[in-house]
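Please decode residue identities from the backbone states below.
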């Protein structure tokens, strides 16, 4: 939900060719929508300027749009899709998401260029990154580990859960 109350939601509807929507909270009308290449299972991250970041299920793409519905950029560095909602760095300069490709992606919010990509042991499904005040990124993985990755893309540490992690860490 944006600062002005706009509701943002993705679609898994093949009939509409998969879209990302902005909904007017007062009357439920569509303010705008943008096409995506596949279903959107993630919630959007919203930065201080109102820009949106959301991923798609099968392609591994991460989209960025303005609050008024203009596409800013599309990151195509993920080789397989994501159900991991993106999270922003404390300064808003980086957006993080993990995917079925077994990687944690750090992407510049200004232009959609990769800052770094951290290889995990297995895929990430439904575990959205959490970012602490120091910029450390936490994400759960199908290898049974919770990862802590430093802001520069190096491993800080892991914790074993003894089972797949399919939920998001909370800070």
């Amino acid at each position: 939900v944006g600062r002005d109350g706009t509701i943002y939601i993705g679609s898994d509807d093949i009939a509409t060719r998969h879209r990302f929507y902005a909904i007017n909270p007062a009357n439920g009308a569509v303010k705008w929508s943008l096409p995506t290449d596949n279903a959107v299972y993630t919630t959007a991250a919203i930065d201080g300027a109102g820009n949106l970041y959301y991923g798609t299920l099968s392609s591994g793409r991460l989209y960025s749009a303005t609050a008024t519905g203009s596409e800013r950029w599309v990151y195509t560095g993920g080789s397989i899709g994501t159900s991991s909602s993106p999270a922003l760095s404390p300064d808003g300069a980086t957006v993080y998401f993990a995917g079925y490709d077994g990687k944690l992606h750090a992407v510049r919010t200004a232009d959609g260029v990769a800052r770094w990509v951290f290889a995990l042991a297995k895929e990430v499904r439904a575990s959205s990154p959490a970012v602490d005040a120091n910029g450390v990124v936490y994400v759960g993985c199908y290898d049974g580990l919770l990862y802590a990755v430093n802001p520069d893309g190096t491993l800080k540490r892991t914790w074993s859960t003894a089972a797949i992690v399919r939920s998001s860490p909370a800070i």
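Observation: The chain has a mean pLDDT of 90.
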